[in-house]
Structure formats: structure tokens, C-alpha cells
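Consider this record:
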Amino acid sequence: MAASAKTPISRTQTTSLYKPYSSSLQLPFKFLKVTPNSCAAKALSICCALQMEPKVGPGSQVPDSFGRFGKFGGKYVPETLMHALTELESAFRALSGDVEFQKELDGILKDYVGRETPLYFAERLSEHYKRPNGEGPLIYLKREDLNHTGAHKINNAVAQALLAKRLGKTRIIAETGAGQHGVATATVCARFGLQCIVYMGAQDMERQALNVFRMRLLGAEVRAVHSGTATLKDATSEAIRDWVTNVETTHYILGSVAGPHPYPMMVRDFHAVIGKETRKQAMEKWGGKPDVLVACVGGGSNAMGLFYEFVDDEDVRLIGVEAAGFGLDSGKHAATLTKGEVGVLHGAMSYLLQDDDGQIIEPHSISAGLDYPGVGPEHSFLKDLGRAEYHSITDEEALEGIKILHFNFLSRVCQIFHSILNVNLVI
């Protein structure tokens, strides 16, 4: 979602906000509690002192060569996966400069996915939020719901499937929560003739039965995960276990900007088309940039895809909205950036929901796509940097948003239907 004033704002050149913080630390365990005096913190300090990188200038590709955004990110994975991750990064960087690959990807995004998606002026919604003095935001909706399969997830899925084919992989695995990433992955596997296995929490399968049906209809094998809370975290863990044992033939299409390097960078770059289109469309519509960008944050892929283009535009506010579940003080929420602490989960250092022993606190959200106890490391970096701000809303507020705004306003007035993930933005 973007909001803008009608007065055009000229783009100014700013220094990149990404600064170097380089370290390489491989750990054989999943969770790491980092406190100022902990052994882990001391180890990080030693690694950083020994392995500093040259300064990163404006426009440089981030993260650094060790896969870190500041202190966040990295590769905390079993040795079995190190070669696969290195191979994946090398292929990604090579294909990023491959004209033929980019031409093929752009063609698929245009003709198969349906890009570019509209930047729709929600006139009546803007009118609804006007103050008595007539002032108020002009609200624009970036219509990622109009992509093939109904969400932004296909941007990344189709690009990674092409990458997997270049690597000679024949088997694709993925995790999914709300089911949108699973549907997107199943779709591109059917398109390219790849075997597809999707891991999904048993609880999420009940909540998202229609998407399970769609995945199976597309030829994917959907494997129910019953461990833990049987939601997204557990599905991700099972997908990683599968990858460890089938690494030679299998590519893991991770669905968010989380996980070990190069996934946060790679998934972000494949979704960066969202922000690039938004900038172009904003210039066409009102001759300037958005004043505020708002997106929901679970793992954070759609938000990062929107934000990344504008990170160096310091006059553009970046706002992420997390799921507060039953409330921030209830212990049942998924507000990782609001209430979490630094630790390691699924191969990367980031903010996590964890207890004093570094064990994961099970998240909760009424939205199956937002109940993840971690978040992409670049979001953690932007939070600590103060470049992006993160807020949260409860399940009750989200449902109220559906009842009051979705059914009574957006659907009747704007004729637009959105998932409960995106209703988090309209409170």
C-alpha cells in the first residue's frame, strides 16, 4: 500500500544506508541466544574483528560477502548444505547478469504472471479517512492480488524455478503457511515439468483447505507436518530436513526473505519488481514518490519487495505491520520485531520470539501466513537502523477491519477482495 500527497517530490541522491558488518560464523545448532556477555556475542565480535570487508558504497549490492545485513543474516546451517548454498549464490549472481536469463524471466513475468500489476487509487477509501478539515491520505493499492495464483509469491517462485532448471535440479521442495507460496510453487513446477513437494503444517492445512486442494490439483505432493504447533515454522523445519538429505537433486524454493544466505538477498531481489513498478507508476500518476509505504510482515517478502527500491529515499516512510495475535502482552502473537530478541532460526540471525533459554516461543496469528516466530534479517537490520518502523495489530482488530472495511467498504465500494494478511494494513 502506498500513500501520497499530490505535490511532486523530486528524488534526491542519498548515501546508501547499508554499512559493512562482516563475519562468518557456522554453528551446528538451530537456535542461538545472543546477549551482550554471551559466548556467542564474543565469538561474533572476534569474527567481525578478523574478517572486515571493504566499505560498501552507494548502490552496492548488499548483504556483504558473508551474507550479513549488519549483524543479521549469515549461514547457520549443517555442513551438508554449505556447498548447495555456495552453488546457489554463484548461480544467482551469474544469472543476474545474464541477458538471456533476464529476458526469459521478464517475458514470463509479463505474459504468464501478468506483470506489471496496477497501482490503484482507492478513491472512496481515501475519502473515508479524510479529516473534518478535508485533509487526509491519498491511498493507493499495489494490486499484487492480480498476479497469476492471486498473490506476490509467484514473482519469487517462477524465478527460483528457472534458477533450479539452470542448476540441473529436477525436484523442488517448499514450505507454506497460508498456502499462497505453495500454490505458486506448485504452479511453476507444473509449468516447467518439475517434481513438487510442499510441506505444510497440519493446522494450516485445515485453515487453508482450498489452497491444499489447488496444490494437489496442480500435481504437487502436500506433506502434512504434525510436529510443534503444526504451522509455518514447523513446515520450514521439515523442508530443511528434506533438503539436507536430498541436496544433490533438490532445490528448496524458500518463500520468504528469511533463511540462510543467499535466500534473503535472492528472494528480495526477485520481489524488488514490486517497488520498482511502484516508483515508475507513482511518477506517472502524480509525478513524485509515495510519502508512506505500508505492508504486512510475517517473514517479510512482500514488504521487502516494496521497501527495497525506496530504502535510500529517506523522505519515504517505510512501515511494516506485524500480527499482535491476542495482544502483545498475551504471549500469543507473532510480533517478532516488536517483542523479539536476537537469535538464530532456520539458518539466519534475526529477531526471534524466544524465551530466556533461547527456545522458540510458538507464535500465534489468525492469519496462517503471519504466524512465524522469526523475520527476514534485512527487516531486523532496517529496524535497528531506524530506517523502517514496525507496528502490530491484534486478531480482533484484523477481524474488525474485515467486517467494517472489507465487506462494508472495500468490497462494496472498491469491488476489491483481500486476504486477512492484507487487512492488517487497513486499521
